[in-house]
Amino acid sequence: MTKALDTKRPAFLFLGAPGSGKGTQGKILGSIPRFFHCACGDIFRSLDTRTALGQRFVDYSSRGELVPDELTIELWKAQVDNWSDSHVYKPDIDFLVLDGIPRNVPQAEMISSFLEIHQVFHLSCPDREELARRMRKRALKDNRIDDASERVIQQRISTYVEETKPILEFYSDALVTNIDATRPPVQVLHDIIGKIVSLPVYKETAKIVS
């Protein structure tokens, strides 16, 4: 790889409203060698609360307060570094597949110091009724009845529109690929993989791996 990729870890970012399927696509892509799916939710569920960082997280969450952006990114990066140190994730040949982080523009600015985002996949689903239907189905499947309420669903969609969607404007148009997420998952995956394999950074990495 080039020197630029040695200093910043290569990554792809999945961005979309709740119910758009970014978690599904992230998991599928992460099952392919040389891609490492990094879901924000998984990181915080596996957080070691015995560490100093973990205790800081508990201090906020136990009071029902939002965890500051700086601490969120610090916790996230610490876990990614742990995966790297244990060779589960190999930053010299693996692409990080980001799902659920960054959550806002300040977080996007923070991760830019150590990650190189090579493409943002915007899973677009303008039909809010379809998003709500998917979220209800998932909540019931996971036995999270409260999350299936209309109030919670609309709140989550509004939070995405107000806080997370502006991330699209943080990156240049050339880095953003809009994908119609209302289609079947296999068609969405087809478009994602088609774009990735066309990127010069992927072709360069593929030569090294082979």
Structure description:
This protein is of the alpha/beta class and 210 residues long. The protein has a single domain (3-203), classed as Rossmann fold. The chain is built from 11 helices and 5 strands, in the order αβαβαααβαβαααβαα. The protein has helices at 3-7, 22-30, 40-45, 52-62, 69-85, 105-111, 128-141, 150-164, 167-170, 185-198, 200-209, and strands spanning 9-16, 35-39, 95-99, 115-124, 176-180. It has a 5-stranded parallel beta sheet. α5 packs parallel to α6 (105-111) and α7 (128-141) packs across α8 (150-164). The longest helix has 17 residues, at 69-85. It is globular. The protein starts with a helix and ends with a helix. The model is unreliable at 1-5 (pLDDT under 50).
Total E-strand runs: 5
What's the shape?
Answer: globular
Question: H/E series, N to C?
Answer: HEHEHHHEHEHHHEHH
* CATH second-level architecture: 3-Layer(aba) Sandwich
Q: State the name of the first-level CATH class.
A: Alpha Beta
Mean pLDDT figure: 88
What is the straight-line distance between the termini?
13 Å
CATH superfamily: P-loop containing nucleotide triphosphate hydrolases
Task: Give me some keywords for this one.
210 residues; alpha/beta; Rossmann fold; disordered N terminus
